Each structure stands twice: as C-alpha cells, then as structure tokens.
Amino acid sequence: MTERRFSARKRDEPRAAGDKRERILRAAVKVFARKGFYASRVSEIAKAAGVADGTIYLYFKSKDELLTSLFEDRITRLLDVLRREIEAVPSGPDRVRRIIEFQLGLLEGERDLAEVITVNLRQSTRLLKQYATKRFTEYLDLMAHVIADAQHAGELRTDVSPRIVARALFGALDGLALTWALGNPEPGGLKRAGTQLADVVLQGLERRGPAA
Amino acid sequence: MTERRFSARKRDEPRAAGDKRERILRAAVKVFARKGFYASRVSEIAKAAGVADGTIYLYFKSKDELLTSLFEDRITRLLDVLRREIEAVPSGPDRVRRIIEFQLGLLEGERDLAEVITVNLRQSTRLLKQYATKRFTEYLDLMAHVIADAQHAGELRTDVSPRIVARALFGALDGLALTWALGNPEPGGLKRAGTQLADVVLQGLERRGPAA
DNA sequence: GCGCGCTGAATCGCCGTTCAGTCACAGCGG
DNA sequence: CCGCTGTGACTGAACGGCGATTCAGCGCGC
Q1: Which of residues 98-127 of B touch A (CB under 8 A)?
Q2: Residue A122 located in a structural domain
Q3: Nearest DNA or RNA nucleotide to A8 (CA to C1')
Q4: CB B151: neighbour CB atoms within 10 A?
Q5: How far apart are the CA of A144 and the nearest CA of chain B, in angstroms?
Q6: A85 lies in a domain?
Q7: Is A41 in CB contact (< 8 Å) with chain B?
C-alpha cells in the first residue's frame, strides 16, 4: 500500500474521477473474467484497481451496479464501432462476414472482456438479465437488420427469418468464443473458426438461385 | 407440511432414497431455473421438494454438489437418448437435422431443464465449469462424430472442421433456446426456428458438388 | 426398545456496505 | 511568505445480515 499518488495528472483535471472510475472498471473486467461475478469479492476488485474497498462505492452504488455499468459502458462502445464497420461495407454477404470477424476478433483481442460478456451475461440476478437483454437486443437487431437488408437486395435467400438467423448466428459465435475462452489458447484458432463459420453460413444463406 | 409418507414404494426398495433424491433434483431444476443458482436458497429447494433443509445434505454434500449432480444426472440421460436416436437414422444430413430437432424439442418440452442447462451452465465457480465441460465435451464429440462420419460418406463438404461446426451448431441451438427461454413463450416457435436453422446449416454444409 | 431417516432451529463465517477519520491541497488572512 | 482552516476525495476497519451447513432430537416401523 505505498504507491498511490503517482497519478498527479498535472492539475488541469478538475477531478481525476474518470480516471479512477475507469481503473475500477478495468479491474472489474479482469477479476470477473477470472472468477465470475459471484465468486469475485469487491475487495479483490479494489485491490486490483489499487484503491480502497470503499472507493468503489464512490463510483458505483453496489456490486451489481458495477457489473451493470460495465456492460453498459463496454457494449455501447462495441456497438458504435460495429455500426461504423458495417456501414463501410456495401455488400450484404460481406457485411455478415464482417460481423463474424468483428465479434471473434474482439474476443481474441480482449479475452477478459470476452469472458465477462459471454459468461457473466447469463449470471447475476434477473435484474441484470433484464438489463442485459436490452443492450443485447440492440446487438441482435443490428445483425437482423443487416440480414434483412441483404434479403431485400436479393443477395440472400428470403425463406428464413432474419431474426432467427441473427440469434442463431450470435449463438454460434458465442459458442465458439466460449469454448475458446475456456479451453485451448491456440492463437489464430478463432480466426480460422470464423472463416469456416462464415463459409458455411454464407453458403447456407445463398439463394438457391443459379441451379434452377 | 403434511403429506410426506405417500411414497412407501412397496418395501422392495432397500431404501426409498432414490425417491427423495429424485424429488430434490426435480425441485432444484425448478428453483434454479426460476432464479439462477446463486439467487436460489437451499431452503427454497427444500420447501419445493417438500423436505427439510437438512435432508438435502443427506443426499448431497453441498449446494454446489447438488448442481453438479443435477447436470451429471440429466445430461447423462440426454446423451443416452440422443445416441439411440441418432443410430436409428442412417443418412448424415438427416442425423444433423435430428440433433437439431432433438435439442430444441427437449428444451421446448422441459423448459426448466433447458434454462438450467443453458443459463446455469455458465454460472457457479470454475469448479463447476470444469466439471461441466467434461460432460459437455461428450455432447460436442457426439455431434462432431456425426458430422465427420457424414463427411467421410461424401454427404457433406469436407473443407470445414467437424469440431468447429459442432461447436458453432451447439452455440446456435443454445442461442435460440436462450432467447426463447428468457423471452416470448410463443409455442411452436422453437420448432420453426429449428427447421430454418437446419435448412440453412444443411445447405451450408452441402458439397459444392453438383455444379462442377 | 432401537435404529434410521428425517427435521428445522441455531450456528457461524463470510463479505457487501458503511462511515469516522486521514490526507493533500487551495484559499486566505496576517 | 507562512500557517491555518475548510473541503472533498479517499481509506479501510468494523458492522450486520444473510444463508449454507450442522446436529440434537424426534417418531415411525420393525
């Protein structure tokens, strides 16, 4: 418990608040990822963040709210990036591929965050679940939209519900991520899995067209 | 707290144990499904099973072990049934379709069990996770085998890893089940989703064959 | 009578949360 | 310039509630 004042941040900052809050969030991601929400002690997060236990309560109302804020913060950020990525791609199928790459890429890059999202998304109380599904739905809607647009453009078969495809695709990605997050660290494995998934899904979504 | 002795089970049984044990397991499924593992109180499970709190500890070492046993018991049973179902179907693609129907059908029929498996599978401590992945792997292996066999028989494209496909497929099913379990009760919805998923997946796994 | 299966109130440890202080600094008056 | 005091961020030991687990006893069937 020695170093603490190494922040100092000049003096320009009216309050270094944002700094500490972010520090706590980062620590929470790490700790939750390692042990899961319920097995994680607030004191551990505090230690990992280099703050006192009580400090956490200056920034979050409760442990629950900490997790909630974490989702809010990170998923909002993800959605923004993903939306921009998608807009930059014109072709429907390419967009689907982009989503797959994006999600798996993210997970490969931020393993802890991946674990928190995929594992803890289903933890906590109904409270959290209800919250989570809100943000979560936004994500699914985005995927469903991409698929529906592509269907309208005649790029994909139209006899399947975009919503169902979106859910299944998300699940597939989640499943790949989960086994990867829990098991073998094999680098690049996710990318390979993503490519194969995209190949299968896109062939599966092709219009039966050319044959007839 | 009145009825309790209605079991009696002749007298053939050296111990009516299995009876009470099963009763506790059933209650646990129900309670865990409704509130999640951590939010469930042992006393609630006891009440739901119509036994005293202490009785649970005559059959299970701890709350954790109760959950573990539950998985062990139910998933083993599922695996047995699924294996038999698959053997009864000769064609590879039909087998895949069968797996999809089976898993979603199960979930539709036993909603509580579905929720426990899909939601709680990711809860608890690492301890459970490690256990879960053991049984879980068996399930995935079964799927991977079916796919690999079909590939060898020339029924499916061979440029994708059976293991990856199995994981993704499981994830997709899990994803469909999850949104279904948490959200709309819309009956038959799962069946429709299953059909569409099968259509897409099977088309996606077709050999590019006929064209060339 | 005896043992066994069961009971459920009491125990006990744990951990989220609180809050009385500490510390660093800034402003201010002398 | 310097010391004094007010302010607010931060600390971390202590509190209190909760709930998993225990175990002293109870009664039924033999």
Answers
A1: 118-119, 122-126
A2: yes
A3: C24
A4: 20
A5: 14
A6: yes
A7: no
How many whole angstroms separate alpha carbon A24 and alpha carbon A46? Answer: 7
- Shared domain check, A103 and A201: yes
B195 and chain A in contact, CB less than 8 A = no
Q: Which chain B residues are within 8 Å of A201, Cβ to Cβ?
A: 200, 204
- The answer to whether residues A72 and A18 belong to one domain is no
What is the number of structural domains in chain B?
2
Q: Which of B129, B173, B206 comes nearest A182 by C-beta? A: B129
| Residues 10-69 of A with CB within 7 A of strand C | 11, 40-43, 53-54, 57, 62-64
A199 and A95 in one domain? Answer: yes
pLDDT tens digits for range B84-138: 999 999 998 999 999 999 988 887 788 888 888 877 767 655 555 666 667 888 8
Q: Which long-range contacts link A35-43 to residues 24+ away (Cβ below 8 Å)?
A: A35/B125, A35/B126, A36/A119, A36/A120, A36/A123, A36/B123, A36/B124, A36/B125, A36/B126, A37/A67, A37/A120, A37/A123, A37/A124, A38/A123, A38/B38, A38/B123, A39/B125, A39/B126
- In this structure, what token pair is assigned to residue B112? 């509580």
C1' (C19) to CA (A119) span, angstroms: 35
Looking at residue B11, what DSSP letter applies?
Answer: T
The domain spanning residue B84 has which CATH number?
A: 1.10.357.10
CATH number of the domain enclosing B37: 1.10.10.60
Q: What is the pLDDT of residues A73-82, one digit of tens each?
A: 888 888 999 9
> Could you say which of B27, B45, B60 is where a domain stops?
B60
Verify that A69 and A44 share a domain, yes or no: no
Identify the residues numbered 22 to 81 in chain B whose C-beta atom is closer than 7 Å to any atom of strand C: 50-55, 57-58
**CB contact A181 to B (< 8 Å):** no
Q: Are residues A70 and A47 in the same domain?
A: no
For residues A130 and A204, the model is more confident at: A204
Range of the domain at B14: 7-60
